[in-house]
C-alpha cells in the first residue's frame, strides 16, 4: 500500500508578509533607513556649505561616493553585517514579548548604523584646504 504523507497544517499557513501589520513594519523599517540616511547626508551637506543642503541631501542618498572600491566594499559589508545582526536578534527574540523584541532589534540596528557611519566618517576623503 502507498503511504500518503500529510503535511502539517502549520507548515501550510506560511509565515511571510501576510498581514497588514507585517507590511507596516517592513515599510517602517525602510522609512527609518531612509530617514537616518537623509539626516546623515543633510548634516554632511550643511558642514560642507552646500547652497541648498536639503536638495543636495536627497540627491546624495542615491549617489556613490568617489572612494576606492575596497573601501566601498568594506562599507557595504559593515552594513550587511549590521543588518544580519539585527535580523538574528529578531529571530533569537521571537519568543519574547513584542516590546522586548523591538527594543533589542532597535538597539542592535542602532549599533550597526553607528558603526557603519563611523567607518564612513573615518575613511571619507577630506580636502586639506
pLDDT below 50 for ≥5 consecutive residues: which ranges? 7-12
Largest sheet: none
The 3D shape can be described as globular
Beta-strand content bin: under 5%
Which bin fits the share of residues in helices?
over 70%
Whole-angstrom Rg: 21 Å
N-to-C CA distance: 85 Å
Structural class: mainly alpha
Output the helix-strand order.
Answer: HHHHH
| Secondary structure tally, helices | 5
| Beta-strand segment tally | 0
The overall pLDDT, averaged over residues, is 78
Structural overview:
By secondary structure, this protein is mainly α. Helices cover 71% and strands 0% of the residues. It has 5 helices and no strands.
List keywords for this structure.
single chain, 129 residues, mainly alpha, 71% helix, 0% strand, globular
Give me a quick take on this structure.
The protein is an all-alpha fold. The protein has 5 helices and no strands.
Helix-strand layout with pairing:
Layout: H1 9-13, H2 20-47, H3 53-60, H4 69-92, H5 98-123
